[in-house]
Amino acid sequence: xxxxxxxxxxxxxxxxxxxxxxxxxxxxxxxxxxxxxxxxxxxxxxxxxxxxxxxxxxxxxxxxxxxxxxxxxxxxxxxxxxxxxxxxxxxxxxxxxxxxxxxxxxxxxxxxxxxxxxxxxxxxxxxxxxxxxxxxxxxxxxxxxxxxxxxxxxxxxxxxxxxxxxxxxxxxxxxxxxxxxxxxxxxxxxxxxxxxxxxxxxxxxxxxxxxxxxxxxxxxxxxxxxxxxxxxxxxxxxxxxxxxxxxxxxxxxxxxxxxxxxxxxxxxxxxxxxxxxxxxxxxxxxxxxxxxxxxxxxxxxxxxxxxxxxxxxxxxxxxxxxxxxxxxxxxxxxxxxxxxxxxxxxxxxxxxxxxxxxxxxxxxxxxxxxxxxxxxxxxxxxxxxxxxxxxxxxxxxxxxxxxxxxxxxxxxxxxxxxxxxxxxxxxxxxxxxxxxxxxxxxxxxxxxxxxxxxxxxxxxxxxxxxxxxxxxxxxxxxxxxxxxxxxxxxxxxxxxxxxxxxxxxxxxxxxxxxxxxxxxxxxxxxxxxxxxxxxxxxxxxxxxxxxxxxxxxxxxxxxxxxxxxxxxxxxxxxxxxxxxxxxxxxxxxxxxxxxxxxxxxxxxxxxxxxxxxxxxxxxxxxxxxxxxxxxxxxxxxxxxxxxxxxxxxxxxxxxxxxxxxxxxxxxxxxxxxxxxxxxxxxxxxxxxxxxxxxxxxxxxxxxxxxxxxxxxxxxxxxxxxxxxxxxxxxxxxxxxxxxxxxxxxxxxxxxxxxxxxxxxxxxxxxxxxxxxxxxxxxxxxxxxxxxxxxxxxxxxxxxxxxxxxxxxxxxxxxxxxxxxxxxxxxxxxxxxxxxxxxxxxxxxxxxxxxxxxxxx
Length: 856
Ligand code: SF4
Hints:
The protein is an alpha/beta fold. The chain is built from 28 helices and 29 strands. Strands 3-4-5-6-7-8 form a six-stranded mixed sheet, with helices on both faces. The longest helix is centred in the middle third of the chain and has 32 residues, at 481-512.
């Protein structure tokens, strides 16, 4: 935001997203822009790194567009006449315009890329869509709001906003980019509403009439005003200074007039009101926490109070400490391309020296992971009573993620998890004690045991950034030895601090007479069925990779394809492992931990019991729940602990009325649940089986064989456009893309024909017409994609194309939500019957449908 020469304010989409995140930040920005005195504004130390990475990503996308023959114009957005230049290029019909400045009234913004797509506008038979090249791999709300603001600005320039906006993230699974398309119509009303409110707020703030106070929100983590707000909260003894007190409970306290830490501390034994959200005990715990913090400050000494031991919580989570316990701590950076990097691994055996393994890139990360897991596995075999001790959930989560990412050490990690080898000290401290610190961090808890760090944390920041930025930019050797040594010392401090905290906690456990956690009773061996399937996979992997050279650049195309297939064989099992670990982790969670998990639900209150009607035998119970952040997916079921088991139930969550309807059935009709969690997993037995059968055929007949699995073979080898007369996947001179795709698809002889193009290039349009041509030629067409939504989009386009062409086509989809004109199929038998009877020509289904026996 800045002031113009005319005295008005120029607003950007970033200003709008700041407004939606925090009004106080917006007010400070207005004050600053109009020249009022403001507090010191900080600067994100990672801003330059992020800008460099962002530029690289954008360059890669522009290169990708250019490689498809598109003309790309890149502008200097702040250059003289740049806004007019964009208009000229749009009128001219240039394929893509990068760094395109757009202006509309008070608004100004620079769109990453405008991409030309077909469709009438005031420019002619084309118009433009806004693309945002984002490094984050998820469509964050800020990016969405920014893009939609550009769409509104485009509306003024071309008479339409474009049907879609696109977020272009780095690709996964071998794809160069991951494109999220958002329909402008779906979000336009929200954007208009937010913009109007923001403009009104800015007018008030300019006039000095906007009153705001800082309230901690998620945006604080990246906000330049953080230092100022933090000082104000300190001055006001704000509730955000109370450790482990979440935003929703804080708001509830404020609603009841409890606005300071001292006021909350006074309510340690009597809260004075009945909270409408959450359990009373949780508020009393927060008051107790406030009390020990206030007293610690008052007497200048750390106040620590032990809590009443409870089964399986706090100190009871500790097993007997062994001198052979392993202590581990990782340093990671989220900015490394492709999902972050664990770049330094530090661990010790008991009090011993800290061992370090650096990982400068992804192969290095894989080596470090394997080295660590192998070392721990061998160590625990020698010392079965030992555990792997860490602080906080980060390390085990990273191990599970890396197992999936690198496809290695699954059995070893699974065995460690089954024998419950990991011990997290954070919940032990949180559930066992009230400690007078503002945060239960490893560093804050050093006041308990007095560990003195080697590395000075005040000077560490720039050195750590030096190492991380060099690593992220792919030049790790450019970080100085001084910086690397400082990071290594810092990591060693964390490891040794964990040892010291463990010792302190164990001494308290013994003194309090709390029984230690018993060994898991699992020897870490997988089940027989699992072993059988695993052996089958391993035999195929061995056969596929037997003569493949270790070094990637020494492999032939055939060997690379065999390696790829070998790595894919166990994909579903690896994925489902992560899902089951999540389930088991939730089964072991305390109420407090469930409260903090987006999959957990607590404080359920029974509203009504719905008895079975007629022949139905299902008792349903409707519960109310308090406001909480919930992440419930369509295939999630509600799980509640019954004895030691988690029982699953079909359930409907209504976030609007905050009610949960649980179909408890006859067996559990009498039960009333107070808490639980949501979890779902769709097995993929048929998909795995189909792939194993394909791999077995490759082993038997070779990858280059003809016939069975021809398309899969060609796809792996990158051999495209197989026809009876040889391979042909190219356009002829003067041939338009649709004519070429139709000609080649009709000529295909069992192979594959990839059609690629940027979003909006017309792939769906082309595919729909190619499908009609195939149907006209007497073929039946199967449509598949990763999601039902994507399949539905193409089927809708087929219906539309058939309508335009005046032909009748039978279209079905193995799914429940289908576009108009498409017949939904819940049962495979009905689908098979209609197929056999010739009533269906085009059928949609995911891999689950097409790998079923009978549908392969
Ligand atoms: S630090 Fe937090 S409360 Fe303060 S202005 Fe920034 S986002 Fe708002």
